[in-house]
Amino acid sequence: MIRTICAAVFAAAVMSPLAAIAQTVTLSPANPQPSAGALSPGLAVSYARMPSAVRELAGAAKALQKGAKPGTPLAGLSYDDTDQKVLTSDSYEKIAADISGYIKFDRAGSYMLEFLNNDGLELSIGGQQVALYDGIHACGYAGEIEVNVPQAGYYPLKATYFQRKGTACLMMEWGPDSDGLEMVPNSAFFH
Question: Looking at the domain that runs over 2-190, which CATH code has it been given?
Answer without folding.
Answer: 2.60.120.1560
